[in-house]
Amino acid sequence: QVQLVESGGGLVQAGGSLRLSCAASGSFFSINAMGWYRQAPGKQRELVATDTSGSTNYADSVKGRFTISRDNAKNTVYLQMNSLKPEDTAVYYCNADAILDIGAYVRGSTRGYWGQGTQVTVSS
Question: Across the chain, what does the average pLDDT equal?
């Protein structure tokens, strides 16, 4: 099993910055992909950014403002958010695709896990 613990959310004024962190712990062989998703009130959860073995992907709405990075030694993913806008207000969730054991690695099998979420509020 994998546990994901997020931190770094909070209240910030428009134009400000926040940095989210998510650390993975538990019993697993390796982490394949890690990423961030967000869900605003009344809306569906949406992708913000992902990092799959160093290959990154961003939602169009955050390109040029957000940067995802990973520290593989610490099994931690970060999301640096700059030039924040009120529309970035949401609960941000960390996601990880884990390979649980050597058998899963041989099969190419991963399992997805979610963090508990951290609130980001951007005031205008």
Answer: 96
Are 44 and 30 contacting, i.e. CB atoms less than 8 angstroms apart? no
Q: Which 3-state string (H, E, C) describes the chain?
A: CEEEEEECCEEEECCCCEEEEEEEEECCCEEEEEEEEEECCCCCCEEEEEEECCEEEECHHHCCCEEEEEEHHHCEEEEEECCCCHHHCEEEEEEEEEECCHHHHHHCCCEEEECCCEEEEEEC
pLDDT tens profile 66-106? 999 999 999 999 999 999 999 999 999 999 999 999 999 99
In whole angstroms, give the CA distance from residue 69 to residue 79.
Answer: 7
Which pair of tokens denotes residue 88?
Answer: 């970035």
**Are the CB atoms for 65 and 49 separated by under 8 Å?**
no
